[in-house]
Every structure is written in structure tokens, then in C-alpha cells.
Amino acid sequence: MNEIMPNKRRESKKAIIIAGAQKVFSTKGFLNVTMQDIIDACGISRGGIYLYFRATDDIFFETITQRSVRQFDDIREAVKNEPSFDQLIRVYLGKHKNRLINHINGAPSLLRAMYEYSFTHHADCDKRLKQKQTNATKATVRAILDLGVKQNKVTCHDTKIIADNFMLLIEGMSIVALTGTLTAQQIDDQFHMFMQQLS
Q: How far apart are CA 44 and CA 40, in angstroms?
């Protein structure tokens, strides 16, 4: 019992640090964030934070790791219940569109921070994290497409290739969103073309 309480307290404090850090990274990107920014955001002393993390890099890595595990959980869970493919794909594409639009409109977003980190960190663990995120997105898309095949809404049965294409499409639009030149109409047009390749 005594071991459980310290572990819960430790996890709780770590969660507070991650939540504060996510807000900071979403606002400032990755390269401009200091440990002091994170200290200010989470209200935990410098010494308290260093009990859990050595540097902002470590905090960001943990933030993204946790986010990539949870991202689109609701979609993956929904697939298990076999809802309408048309409705599910609309929701999924809508989530991506909102994420891109929010970034374009200056809303807090981890998009810039994620690319800054990716372009400056090349250790094996960083490559594995990026690959894990990519694989999770592809797996989500494939699960949705396989549902579409099952419901005779997707006639192209090579869902792996389509999922790969979608991943490249999303990555491309994400990079263009960082420049501020992506428009809502362009997103709609790209998603329309994506939907056309399904049949």
C-alpha cells in the first residue's frame, strides 16, 4: 500500500508537468521553449521537475509519446462497433481538417513543435517515435478503409497503399500549414480527391 501511494503521487506530478509543457510547446513550438517556461506553466519547482526530466527534450519526447498513444483513440474504438463508413470517414477527415485549420488560424497546436523536434533530433529513439506515429495513423486509416470494404463503400481493396497515400497527403498538408498558405478550400479539395480514389 505504501508503494502504491508514492507511485500515484509521482504519476500525478508527472502528468501535471506534461500538461503544462504541452501548453507551452503548443504556443511556442519546440525550439523556443526553455525549462523556465515549463516551470512557470506547471507551477512545479525547478528541482521538482528535474526529479522527472533532465531537459526540455525529454519532456517533449514524453509529451509526444503520450499524445501519439491517445490520438484518434475514439476513432479506433468506433471502428470496433462497425458504424457507418460514410459517417466515420467524415468524422476522421473532419478531425484532421480542424487540426490543420486551427494551426493556420494561430490556435495553440503541437504541429510546429513536432516538426521542429523532428528536424533537429535524429537519434534512434526519435526515429522510432516518428515511425510509431506514422504507423498509428496508417493503422487508423486502414481500419476505417477495411470497414468501408466490408460495407461495400470502398471498392479498391488495397487499403495499405491508400493508407500510405493518405499519410503522405496529411504530412504534406501539415508542412504547408506551417507556412500559413494552406486554405480550407485546399484541404477540402485534397480530401475530395482522396475519397475519389476509394472507388
A: 8
